[in-house]
Amino acid sequence: MFRYLSCLIIALFTISAANAVDITALKGGRIIDGNGGAPIVDGVILMDGERIIAVGNEDDINIPTGTKIIDTNGMTVMPGLIDIHVHFDILGHSDYNHWFGKYENRMRSDIMPAAAKAMLMAGVTSVRDLGADVSNIFWLRDQVNSGKIPGPRTFIAGPFLRKTATAFVSDGYKDTWVIESPEDAREKVRKLKEMGADVIKTQDEALSQEELAAIYDEAHKQGLRVASHIYAAEAIRTALKAGIGEYDTIEHIGEYEATAYDDDIVQMILDQKVAMAATIIARDGLRQIIENPELTDDPRWIRDLPADLYADVRKSYREVDLTDHPLYDKASAHRAGRMAKLRQLKEAGAIFTVSTDSGTRANPHHDAMWKEMVLMQEETGMTNMEVLVAATKTNALVMQQQDKIGTLEAGKLADIIIVDGDPLSHLSDMRRVKHVIKGGVLFR
Ligand SMILES: [Zn+2]
After folding, report:
1. 202 C-alpha to center of ligand 1: Å?
2. Domain 81-287+314-398: CATH class, spelled out
3. What's the 302 CA to ligand 1 centre distance in angstroms?
4. String of b and e for 412-421 (b: at least 16 CB within 10 Å)?
5. Contact 248/239 with Cβ under 8 angstroms?
6. If you measure from the C-alpha of residue 70 to the centroid of ligand 1, how many angstroms do you get, rounded to a whole number?
7. 69 has which bridge partners?
């Protein structure tokens, strides 16, 4: 009843206060609002400029005369997807040495804009980049967020915080800040905050518990969350003891053959409200392409990338035998253990996000999110609705953007996708994003 009344009040307010010429209605269609409740059949969403002003049923909402109508009948209307783990500087090529050796000077001209476009076209309207060259990624964020390059709302970590630099980039490509000590860690987190980073990324199990504790504590003091790339159970325990906290994320959770985490690890994850980021597609993508090379001919891959880069990425799978690649082995060797551990965490009540690591090997931006959602459902036992909520509302919480995005509600930004299908029956329908609206602007 309250919901009905509030919709009505908003609708009446709309008619009197707003100029109908500026209002757009998404009319018909089933609305999944991101909160996890029953969908609204024959839904209507009114947008005024960049904001949503009403969400409800056709019977509840008056559409002012002169309103522009977008017909969404037969389709699913839901919040734009949020991916909390992407990399704008890679496009799914199988060989990082080759990629960075050849293309570091094409990041701004071609690669990052192509990644941004591919994400947005796939219905991903907000992302968190978890590690790239500092100068390029701050530039990219400002270009996209000021509207100069089409792409999702972009939040960034800047560099990986590690004990050693990454091996495959040149000296001039500053994607790593090496941590020397706990004091150094604090200083670097403060420096990143000053520079305007949105999140801190640790990517090294060699960081000591003291160094991690300094990173977590300083980041939390600065109002930043931390995403930690961790595989081994012992390293997860170290990060938990070091104070990884509420809605910080453990990226790549579930890795390795072991079929359960020790009870103390699960308990700390629950007590500290750490969010689980499984990035399953970053493990399974190579298997999918090796077993079905036709995937590299997907027209969406061709559509989103400059022709020569697409050709080079395709060649890296079509003309190289990758069956002895460690990722291919891991895809099958770790699957049973990962599934068992993810289900253990799910049953215990851990918070789950949807996190793709898109751009990594065989994990192109146009496919990452819908594939990860399907794998999440299969491997964790989450319901389709739970996965949809994780990909929208929960991910907005992780990014500290829950007041602006993540659910379809009056007052929030109009980041909305229209899916040609029914993801509550078949999550793979998320592949068929027909329209993408970001901030009230229709991008496709
Ligand atoms: Zn990553």
Report:
1. 10
2. alpha beta
3. 23
4. bbbbbbbbeb
5. no
6. 37
7. 25
Q: Is 176 exposed, middle or buried (0-12, 13-18, 19+ CB in 10 A)?
A: buried
Q: Which of 245, 317, 246, 319 is nearest to 288 (CA)?
A: 317
Give 314-330 pLDDT, tens digit per residue.
999 999 999 999 889 88
Q: At what angle do helices 365-380 and 112-121 cross, to 10 degrees?
A: 50
* Alpha carbon of 84 to ligand 1 centroid (Å): 10
CA of 80 to the centre of ligand 1 (A): 21
CB 326 within 8 A of CB 248: no
Contact, 209 vs 215, CB < 8 A?
no
Instruction: Break the chain into its structural domains and give their ranges.
Output: 2-80+406-442, 81-287+314-398
Is 2-80+406-442 a CATH 3.30.310.50 domain? no
Q: What are 20-43's pLDDT values in tens digits?
A: 668 999 999 999 999 999 999 999
Burial class (CB in 10 A: 0-12, 13-18, 19+), 326: exposed
The answer to whether the predicted template modeling score (pTM) of the entire model surpasses 0.70 is: yes
For residue 382 the two structure tokens come to: 């989450």
